[in-house]
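Second attempt. The first submission of FAD-dependent oxidoreductase had a stray character pasted in from the spreadsheet, which I only caught after the job came back as garbage. Lesson logged: always re-copy from the clean sequence file. Corrected sequence (422 aa) follows.
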Amino acid sequence: MTTATHTNQTRAHSLAHLNVLISGASVAGPALALWLSRYGARVTVLEKAPALREGGFAVDFRGDVHRTVLQRMGIWDEVHRRQTHMGRQTIVEADDKERVDLPAFLMSGDVEIFRGDLSTILYEGTRDHVEYVFGDSIASLTEDSEGIDVTFDHGAPRRFDLVVGADGLHSNTRRLVFGDEAPYLRFLGYYVAGFRIPNHLGLDRTARIYSEPGRTLMISNYDGDPERAGAALIFGSERLDYDRHDTAGQKRILAQTFAGLGWTHAARALEGLESAEELYFDAIAQIHVDRLSKGRVVLLGDAGYGATMGGMGTGTALVGAYVLAGELAAARGDHRAGFAAYEAEIRDYAKGCQKISGNAGPFLAPPSEKKIRSRDRVYRLLGSRLLAGFFKRLTEKAASDLALKEYALEPSGAYASLNRQP
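This time the job returned cleanly.
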């Protein structure tokens, strides 16, 4: 697959006859809603949470393909306005002595933004043309030759032409249509957790990272808030049997796993875990499905090709949304042709991005002291001026490995004003 942008143009047609349900209002769902609404489709975005999710981990974008999609969406400038401006990240010894200093470009790509801020940008840019329903979830899907009937946990049943599962690594839509997630979720031997703590280190858009064999604690401040910081815990483990909805149980797992961590600031950070109101906890894993669509249902973003971390999942989701909408419009709304073209365009690209995430856990929390030292030597080399350009090109390679089409919307009908592509 060659790296290129603006290499070919495909005529896109109005989708005014389509009524589409998208499950998930984080990033992939609203991104697809933006494009489908520009092509004239009627779009409903369904979100299980009662409101947009704020905060979350920072996500970054790298290379020409990410940049081109953000520019064609019309949000490039706003993403830059709300970027984190994250600075250096420092690996430390147990006594907090600095071991390795990582410059910002190593970790933050071309531009970095909180997932919650990106979600807000997309929501604000689509809410006038898209219906959003919060606090509900799909209960069942029944398809026939003309459409798909959807029942909900709370709302009245409705009928749509297409349904898109953009509801994350543990997709409810995928479960309903493709079956239990077990055959599709590839566990990579590590877990990650994140929560907010007081900024007792006085960090200002910087981070400090401490590792012992199989365990890493990172304390960071991405937004300049003098009162609050974020703690991230990464650890190697056999697969754990736990309830994804039991926050107290997850806190117990983390407290036991990180008990006795040698860093001088570890105990205070773990005190913050006990009182944390919100906790992110999940396996470092990937989703691999045999196909991305079944009938009138299609998977987008993490639901179809997710990686917990290190796989540029947010950038891949935005590219996927652009391609899915464009191919549906090119196929005049024929979902069979549109879904097949989307999968043909995105599958290898998504796999390439996933591939680089496979070593995220061992690199972030190496399993031995020897491997910790080896990782730190790599960081020192990559942070040098001599290798900075090489490493930047290396990290952008997978993100840019797609000949991105330009879907030119026919400027006719009531939806011409929504065509804001450059």
